[in-house]
């Protein structure tokens, strides 16, 4: 379990996160949603240790990240998989080199075994015959899948995804969402996704945390979203015409 | 002024992270050989070309400036050798490499920073400064002295060819001059300077690339800043090292 307690982060005196607390459970996909600039990415980066919060605790299975030694932090990070918004694939390395890299760095397995694992994760994300291609030769959706393959190659306990659907068409977005959900269920990992994609919220959001101006404004499930009276989240969720119509239809159905 | 001290402090803090034990020896060696190819072997062509022609120009200019018929012609070879060993090869070639290699290092690391590739390394638990910069330092410091030896050799050959083609100096005079009053310590001095400059060429552009913020334009600006500062530091260190090693 990951527990975040009263997280506070500021940049040049401007607060970005104002005391956020949340828990993330094993085998569940949690979504952190909110408008651009609401603090989602900063929240994720603080959890990953890429940014140091001014205040607050982040506990991984009961161990406070801020109190860990350098070695403990490094060991923890080996258990973390991360899918960055832009993929963050090493652009001068092939797909195979990208995925094999963590294995080379942190294991002493023979090369053949590492290659087997690479091919296994590539199959798992439904990619074939791309081992020798460079990231620039792949489509956006394929790059995201390679990023997921790299994130899961070390069998992580925690998977973080920063807007995994950005720049993808709706169909590919659903494929990526389902893939993340399947991997979460299969490996029983804690998955945390930053998103502002409402399709993702509906498809895979087992737990949803809504951030607004650095504050946790709302928390619930995807079913709760339709029932809530919280104006901030309803404004966010129903900002598109499509969802406005869905809302109207729901209200009609319920007779209110 | 205070900001300059802040940058210098940050540069030394960066070096502290760089000089940590590599996490995986096999990956580290692989990186060193890759950097030797990227930063060293790929620079030999331009260094050879420039050294050969500059050697020729040095001989022609020295010969044309020796107007007194009583001045022995072998001084042309002597002057070319001294200028190549003491100054041209270690200092000017290093400044040329600061442009070529320095901009490559700053822009490649800078691009990795703005495309979150460095964040990806950090999330994996890798000391990104150690992984990215230490192999560059080792490749530069140990390989550039070879490049400079090649530069000195080709400069002297270039001078001989130019002297012969123009008829300004005979082969025997030139060879005599090149051998005349040879001071082996000058080679040591040249190689010490090269090793120090090689360290600067690896670290200052890495610093500018690693701490870049923004996008493509900022990476370009960081690359330019890296070349300018590397050249300035080389020139200043050249003065200090010359005073320390050759000064009486």
Any key phrases for this structure?
heterodimer, A: 256 residues, alpha/beta, Rossmann fold, 6-stranded mixed beta sheet, 4-stranded antiparallel beta sheet, 10 helices, 24% strand, B: 248 residues, mainly alpha
Strand arrangement in the largest pleated sheet of chain A: 6-7-8-3-9-10
Order of helices and strands of chain B: HHHHHHHH
Strand content of chain B: under 5%
Summed up, the domain count of chain B is 1
Q: Helical amount among residues of chain A, as a percent range?
A: 40-55%
- The CATH topology of the largest domain in chain A corresponds to Rossmann fold
Class based on secondary structure composition and strand pairing of chain B: mainly alpha
From the alpha-carbon coordinates, what is the Rg of chain A to the nearest angstrom?
Answer: 19 Å
| Global shape of chain A | globular
Number of strands of chain A: 10
CATH homologous superfamily placement of the largest domain in chain A: P-loop containing nucleotide triphosphate hydrolases
State which percent range the strand residues of chain A make up.
15-25%
Q: What characterizes the major β-sheet of chain A?
A: 6 strands, mixed
Give me the number of helical elements of chain A: 10
The main sheet of chain B comes to: none
Secondary-structure element pattern of chain A, one letter each: EEEHEEHEHHHEHEHEEHHH
- Overall mean pLDDT of chain B stands at 94
Number of domains of chain A: 2
User: Uncertain segments of chain B of ≥5 residues (pLDDT<50)?
Assistant: none
Please state the structural category of chain A: alpha/beta
Instruction: Note the gap between the termini of chain A.
Output: 40 Å
């Amino acid at each position: 379990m990951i527990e975040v307690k009263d997280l506070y982060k500021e940049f040049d005196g401007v607060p970005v996160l104002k005391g956020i607390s949340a828990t993330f459970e094993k085998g569940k996909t949690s979504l952190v949603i909110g408008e651009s600039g609401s603090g989602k990415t900063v929240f994720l980066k603080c959890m990953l240790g890429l940014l140091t919060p001014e205040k607050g605790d982040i506990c991984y299975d009961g161990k406070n990240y801020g109190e860990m030694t350098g070695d403990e932090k490094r060991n923890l990070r080996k258990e973390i998989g991360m899918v960055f918004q832009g993929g963050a694939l090493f652009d001068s390395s092939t797909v195979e080199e990208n995925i094999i890299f963590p294995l080379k760095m942190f294991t002493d397995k023979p090369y053949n075994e590492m290659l087997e694992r690479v091919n296994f994760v590539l199959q798992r994300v439904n990619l074939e015959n791309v081992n020798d291609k460079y990231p620039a030769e792949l489509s956006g959706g394929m790059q995201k899948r390679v990023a997921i393959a790299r994130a899961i190659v070390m069998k992580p306990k925690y998977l973080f995804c920063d807007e995994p659907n950005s720049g993808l068409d709706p169909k590919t977005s659903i494929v990526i969402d389902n893939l993340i959900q399947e991997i979460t269920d299969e490996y029983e990992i804690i998955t945390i996704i930053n998103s502002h994609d409402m399709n993702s919220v509906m498809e895979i959001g087992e737990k949803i945390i809504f951030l607004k101006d650095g504050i946790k404004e709302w928390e619930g499930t995807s079913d709760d979203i339709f029932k809530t009276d919280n104006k901030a989240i309803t404004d966010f969720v129903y900002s598109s015409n499509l969802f406005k119509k869905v809302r109207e239809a729901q209200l009609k159905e319920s007779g209110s | 002024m205070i900001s300059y001290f802040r940058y210098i402090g940050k540069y030394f803090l960066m070096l502290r992270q760089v000089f940590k034990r590599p996490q995986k020896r096999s990956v580290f060696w692989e990186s060193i050989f890759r950097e030797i190819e990227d930063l060293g072997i790929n620079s030999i062509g331009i260094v050879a070309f420039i050294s050969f022609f500059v050697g020729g120009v040095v001989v022609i200019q020295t010969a044309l400036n020796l107007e007194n018929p009583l001045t022995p012609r072998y001084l042309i070879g002597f002057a070319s050798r001294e200028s190549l060993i003491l100054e041209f090869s270690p200092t000017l070639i290093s400044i040329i490499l600061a442009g070529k290699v320095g901009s490559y290092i700053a822009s490649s690391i800078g691009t990795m920073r703005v495309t979150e590739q460095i964040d990806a390394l950090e999330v994996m638990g890798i000391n990104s400064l150690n992984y990215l910069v230490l192999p560059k330092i080792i490749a530069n410091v140990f390989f550039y002295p070879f490049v400079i030896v090649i530069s000195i050799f080709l400069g002297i050959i270039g001078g001989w060819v130019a002297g012969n083609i123009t008829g300004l100096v005979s082969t025997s005079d030139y060879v005599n001059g090149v051998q005349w009053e040879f001071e082996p310590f000058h080679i040591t001095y040249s190689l010490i300077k090269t090793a120090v400059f090689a360290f600067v060429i690896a670290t200052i552009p890495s610093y500018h690339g690693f701490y870049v913020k923004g996008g493509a334009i900022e990476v370009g600006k960081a690359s330019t800043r890296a070349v300018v500062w590397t050249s300035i530091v080389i020139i200043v260190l050249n003065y200090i090292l010359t005073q320390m090693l050759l000064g009486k």
